[in-house]
Structures are given as structure tokens and as C-alpha cells.
Amino acid sequence: TIVEVLRKETDRRRQLSGRKLLITAGPTREKIDPVRYFTNPSTGKMGYALAREAAEMGAEVTLISGPVTLDTPPNVKRIDVVSARDMYESVMEHFPDQDIVIKTAAVADYRPAVTFDHKMKKKDGEWEVEMERTTDILQELGKKKTTQFLVGFAAETQNVEEYGRMKRDKKNLDAIVVNDVSEAGTGFGADENRVIWMGKEEEKLPLLSKQDVAREILDRIVREIRDL
Amino acid sequence: TIVEVLRKETDRRRQLSGRKLLITAGPTREKIDPVRYFTNPSTGKMGYALAREAAEMGAEVTLISGPVTLDTPPNVKRIDVVSARDMYESVMEHFPDQDIVIKTAAVADYRPAVTFDHKMKKKDGEWEVEMERTTDILQELGKKKTTQFLVGFAAETQNVEEYGRMKRDKKNLDAIVVNDVSEAGTGFGADENRVIWMGKEEEKLPLLSKQDVAREILDRIVREIRDL
Known about the structure:
The structure is a homodimer.
Chain A: H1 2-12, E1 20-25, E2 30-33, E3 36-39, H2 45-56, E4 60-65, E5 76-80, H3 84-94, E6 100-103, E7 110-112, E8 127-133, H4 137-144, E9 149-156, H5 160-170, E10 175-180, E11 192-193, E12 195-198, E13 202-204, E14 208-209, H6 210-226
Parallel strand pairs in A: 1-4, 1-6, 4-5, 6-9, 9-10
Antiparallel strand pairs in A: 2-3, 7-8, 10-12, 11-14, 12-13
Helix pairs in contact in A: 2-6
């Protein structure tokens, strides 16, 4: 009946009320000089869909975002960052008082060891760029977490479930959402996504819009938190 | 009078009629693996503004574009490319029968020497990325040009005029448009730009919207072609 549909919708809008949710989204940029950097194809769509949906479900949402071209969803507090180092600092600052943390950002795992203030001039021949590891933010959060429900994302191109499960356990996550970015039309930049939820339960979801994937993920988080 | 204004506008709409104009725009992406690449902050705005304006002035415009999030301007034929190699091939294919060629694209000048089909797994410690030079498209066009009026763009952070003039002469260009990307609010990603026109004439333009910069540049091209 209509009454039931409305009640269900009203219930959904309260499912995360009072919860503080931190979401990271987008890529990071790791500069060599003012006009050259390393990055990845993340557009932030998945993270922004989660932020929009969580805010609709009543959560107090903080969205820490790398450089993307998306509009901030309604009722979401957005903080813009550029590099993996910026992202790390902002996440660590906001982490302590969160209830749920979802890391969708594709944070660069390497950055140039040296950054130049001025544009480097081209030279003949090859050029060795020395790269150093960035801090693994998710792993740090896994070590630091107290009561937070911590969800990671993993983009893989092969052995996706195996790598996903390994990351979830190694990084002390409550759940990981894995997707196979080698599949056309899903993952980076796409409007749809086919993911595997790996929390206490494991479940392959069908190909869905990112907004629907966001709903499915948040429903599973709510369910697994309730069962804790 | 209104009649004069309308006549002027009508004249402007014919200034490039019958001319074939090739514009390149945006960044290129140079892959290390499916989720990591090397690029630059170009958003394509300057090139797209030129394409829009040139089409309004009656030109037959081909726009070869790296990955950007802009809409194709009306009456412009757009060709999408990703890497410097793609850009080179597309430009070389379309170059021979053009009247005017404007290279605004920020084509990567280096690319990883090796590209991996699958996402590289992180390892402990540092990582040397070997980079090799890409083909300098503008320099190739300078060597190959017959009757084309060839315009380059240069983004510099220091000695901007000196480097600009050097590039123009070394690459056999008819003109170069130089901007200082170290200045906040202009250049990469901004909606405004402060440029120096260096053709037969040299002139510092004031801070203008990119659409107005496009007009000023096309007016100067029309004038210098007429004076040839």
C-alpha cells in the first residue's frame, strides 16, 4: 500500500540519523612540478553517490574530496584536498569522532620523491623519476580505529576477490567493496558499477547505477552494524 | 548606430568562412598501468573557447581533444584522443589540408617507457619510473607546414617571454601565445587568462575571460594572415 511505501521511505530517511559518516572520494595528484603530475582515473562518482545517499538517510556527512568536477551533494560538508599527503592529514583530523568511515578515494600509492617549484625543461634522452610510497591511509585507520565501522574500496584488474579479502583482513577493515576495473562500463568514470560486498557477509551485486550501489552498500553497513 | 553594430557582427561571422581550422585541446594521459598515469592540469577550456569562437566566425573547425569534461561547441567536429601518441597520429592525419592550426593541447612531453596491462602491486621501498620523450607534435608541424598558419601555446612559470620567443622561432611557428601559469587565477583550469601574443606583432593582453582571449587571438590571426 501507499502507506507502507511511505513508511518504508520515512524509515530509510532515519536509518543513519545521528550517525557521523566520513567519506573520501576522487583521485589525488602527486606533482613533479607545476605542470606535471601522477594521478589515476577516479572521477569521485562512487564516493559522491555514497555521500548523497548517506545524507538522505540522515547521517552527518563529511566528504573529503580529491580534485573532481562534481557538485557537492545537499547537506554534505565537503573538504577539498589535492595530494595523498593532504588527504592523509585531513582524514586523520576528522577520523576520531566518526561512526562510519568509507574510503572510496583512489589515493596515489606512490609520489615523486622530489617536487620542483618551476616547470622542468625537457632534456634529450630518458628520464628516471624516483617515486616513494605514500602513507597507506586505510591501513593507518585500521590500526587506529576504536568503534568506527571502517569500509574500504578496492579496484583490481585480476584475482579481484582474493586481493579484496586479503586487503580487508590485512588492513583490519570491517568490510571492503571490490570491483573489477578491467570490465568495460564499470568502475572508473562510469555511471554504473558491478561490485562485490565483502563484510561479514559476502555478496556479488549485479550491475547497478552508482546511486543504487551506494544504497546497497549503506543498507549492508546499517545491517552489519546492527548485528555487531 | 545599431546598423553599424549589426554589420560589424555580420562581418565577424564571415571572417573565417571557408577556412579550415584545426585546434588541439586538453591534456594527454600517459599510462603506467590501468590505474596509474602521468598527466597535467589542462582542462581544455582555452582550446574549446577557440573552437567555439572560430566556428562562430565561419570556420570549419576540427577539434582534437584529450580527456576533458567539456561539451563540444556547436558546429565543431570533435575527435577524442587519450595519449600523446594518439594525439600525434590524429593531428598528422588532419594537418595537410588545414589553413590554420592552433595547438593549445598540453601534450605530455614524457611517457612511461613501459606500460603494464595489469595493476602493478605495491612493493616496499622506492620505485624508479623510466620515462621517455614523446614526439614534439608542434615541432613536427613546423617542419611539415606548407601554407598553414601555425600557432602554438606555451605555459611557462619563469622567463615566459624569452622561452616563448625561443619556442616560436625554433619550432618554425607563425605565432605563439604565452602565459605565465605561476600566476593564480589564470592558465590551467581557470576561466580567465592573461596571455602575450607573439606573432609578427607582440602584445601583452590584459586579464580576460578565455572566451575573450579566444576572440583576441583569432582577430590577430586573421590580421596577420591578411598581411602575409
